[in-house]
Amino acid sequence: MICFLIHVQSMEFFQQGKEGFMRRVVFHRKSIFNISLLIGFLVTLFLVSPGFCQGDGAPLWRKSAGSLTIFQPGDAVRIQVWELYEQHTNLNLTGDYPISPEGTIILPLVGEIKVKGLTVFELMQTIENKLRAYMRNPLVYVYPLIRVTLQGAFLRPGSYRVPPTSSLWDVIALAGGPRGDTDLNKLQVERGGKVVLNDLLNSFEKGYSIEDIGIESGDQIIAQTRTRLSIHVILGFVNMALTLALLYIRIRYRTW
What we know:
Blueprint: H1 2-47, H2 60-63, E1 76-83, E2 95-98, E3 104-107, E4 111-114, H3 120-131, E5 138-152, E6 158-162, H4 168-174, E7 182-191, E8 194-198, H5 201-206, H6 210-213, E9 220-225, H7 231-255
Parallel strand pairs: 5-9
Antiparallel strand pairs: 1-2, 1-5, 3-4, 5-6, 7-8, 7-9
């Protein structure tokens, strides 16, 4: 009888403990749910606050594109234009636009735009403001293209406009790649007639961008050829060696 009472009391205690545990679980779940709602509300409040979207409505991630890149004559601008909430890109405006010696570009519909001295983001804003007369919600992206000249042992040496984020290999590929006699160990960069960078093979192999390497607009990438002996030089050495050998034999023969 005593054992039975102890068993009943134990079961009641276990049941109360189980119910208390379940109540605590439910309480914690509700707390986690409430905290999640609070975090979601704060994130939403942050996204729509003036600090995230400033006066012109442009989010900060777009403003970060306004780096210290300054456009200058001789470079070019790659412009992509969309109309917001539309499914297609306006291909009549998207393209690469060279910067004139006066520091301007000619954009269809808009006409001449002065870009000299502007940052990437400033030019984005300028073009969007001008396009609002023709499009309801223009969205513009701008990419700088710098001028780089490749000279020496390349298949198609010349001047090219490339994004600063291009790898050294991408730039050399525009020039047709290195020739068969190119000495990649002697790649160098000249600026204003002076060598500013050399020993670029490591950067070439690892795919570093020309911006990371330190190449600037107007720089010249120069490739030298490997020094190798021509067939005429080799035959000349062989002929001289044979002549000396014959002379040595004759002298020895006369002394015998």
